[in-house]
């Protein structure tokens, strides 16, 4: 059955996120005020306010908005955090993080994707993001420590550099698995590493590639 009308406004997306269990009002307001149509390929603008992933080339897709929101919500951002995002994509999730935290360092593997994300963020007047092109599996040690880390690609474990770059008590969220059938887990940094984590949801993600990910 595909009879429902496609969502057409940010408010439709907010309703979908509420239905998926998102309750953080600051996060919902960030979704309401961040036009996703400007963060998807031009030919996919009609799908911008549907709660669906969108292909962005290089066999990559954007994270489904409700899933992205669930991951962001687990970070419990209060507004003054220094955040690391692994996997910028076209910048929609980055924009949400930028509205919820003090600043964001985001690293993307594909230069053309990162360049488009930079244009998208600039067009929305978002200035508190530092974009990097490179191997996200190793994080961005020069800007560590981070209060929160969000990883938008799958690997069977959290890469050691990302744990090391997370401050004590900080939160990290990552899909754990081999790519295609993951458990999205939320962790806290402890004196000995990460706690055992809690399961947020099952989901499908692309693989985390790089020195500390898949080859």
TrEMBL record:
The UniProt keywords, alphabetically, are: Cytoplasm, Methyltransferase, S-adenosyl-L-methionine, Transferase
Q: What is its main location?
A: cytoplasm
The record ties this protein, via InterPro entries, to: PCMT, SAM-dependent_MTases_sf
UniProt keyword Transferase present: yes
Q: Which Pfam families match?
A: PCMT
Query: Which EC number(s) does the record attach to this protein?
Result: 2.1.1.77
Location in the cell reads: Cytoplasm
Q: Which GO terms describe its biological process?
A: methylation; protein repair
* GO cellular component terms, A-Z: cytoplasm
GO molecular function (one): protein-L-isoaspartate (D-aspartate) O-methyltransferase activity
Could you tell me what this protein is called?
Protein-L-isoaspartate O-methyltransferase
Native organism is: Streptomyces himalayensis subsp. aureolus
């Amino acid at each position: 059955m595909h009879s429902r009308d496609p969502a057409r406004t940010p408010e439709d997306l907010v309703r979908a996120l509420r239905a998926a269990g998102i309750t953080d009002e600051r996060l919902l307001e960030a979704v309401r005020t961040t036009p996703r149509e400007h963060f998807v390929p031009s030919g996919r603008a009609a799908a911008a306010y549907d709660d669906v992933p969108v292909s962005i080339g290089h066999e990559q897709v954007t994270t489904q908005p409700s899933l992205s929101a669930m991951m962001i919500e687990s970070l419990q951002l209060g507004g003054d955090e220094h955040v690391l995002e692994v996997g910028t994509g076209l910048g929609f999730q980055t924009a949400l993080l930028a509205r919820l935290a003090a600043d964001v360092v985001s690293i993307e593997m594909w230069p053309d994707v990162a360049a488009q994300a930079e244009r998208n963020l600039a067009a929305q007047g978002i200035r508190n993001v530092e974009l990097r092109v490179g191997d996200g599996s190793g994080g961005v040690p020069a800007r560590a420590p981070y209060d929160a880390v969000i990883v938008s690609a799958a690997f069977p474990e959290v890469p050691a550099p990302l744990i090391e770059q997370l401050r004590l008590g900080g939160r990290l969220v990552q899909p754990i698995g081999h790519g295609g059938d993951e458990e999205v887990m939320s962790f806290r940094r402890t004196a000995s590493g990460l706690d055992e984590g809690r399961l947020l949801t099952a989901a499908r993600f692309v693989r985390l590639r790089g020195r500390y990910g898949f080859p």
